[in-house]
Structure formats: C-alpha cells, structure tokens
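Worked Example 4.2. Consider the chain below.
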Amino acid sequence: MKFFRFDIGGKARRASRLIGSVRAEFVKALIHERENGLTRQAVATKLQIPRSELNDQLTGASCLTLRDISDLAWALDRDIKFELTPRSQKPGQNLISQATTITAMTPTVVGTIQPNSTLPSRPQTFVVQQRQTK
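Applying the procedure from the previous section yields the following structure tokens:
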C-alpha cells in the first residue's frame, strides 16, 4: 500500500472548511425544500442552468463563485448571513504541533505515482523540510 504524507497549511485548511460548510448549508436547505416538494430540477430551471451543473456545484466538482452562492440562495428563497469573527481557541481543538507524534526535524520525502504511459517515466520526488514549530 502506497501513501504519501503531505501538510495542508492553515490557509488551505480554513478555505476548505469554509467551502465545505457553504456547500453543506445549501444541501441542508435543498433537503428541507425537498420535503416541501421542491426538486433539484426545479431549482436548476429557476437558475436557468442544467441540473448537472447544479449537482457539480453542490458536490464540489465545480467551483462556487460568490455569484453562484447568491443565485442559489435566491433560488431557495434564503438570506445569506456573512460574519467574520475573531478566532478563538476552543477546548478540544488540537494544534498540529501538539497533536503530531513526529518529533524529529528530518526532511520528508514526498513522491507522486506515475500513470502508466508509453513515455519513459520521470519520477518526481521532492524533499520538503518540516516547518519549525514555535
């Protein structure tokens, strides 16, 4: 079994959590509206887009722009609430520096799996230094 260890930085982690929570809110709203008889096809028709495009937006197969978010909220007759709050440490949250079992500051070798090809293989291997924790 091959696996690769990679570090997702705080910026990417926070972005993926935001994107995931936005999509989850839309799915939750669609489930609620489905109980009232509104289908995904009806939402797609109201937005004048193919249902497959709506499904791609909700599953993450395509990107959601702010305009897409606004349009989806309009189609579902929902208001959008956006709020930035100062970050606070919550009990039970683990910081990567506290949760990791790796203590040595040795380089990490990261590789990629090469697809089968008729071309000569060129393995891609990168040596990544771990970040110093404070």
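The mean pLDDT is 78. Residues 11-75 form a domain with the 434 Repressor (Amino-terminal Domain) fold (CATH 1.10.260). Compare this with Example 4.1 before moving on.
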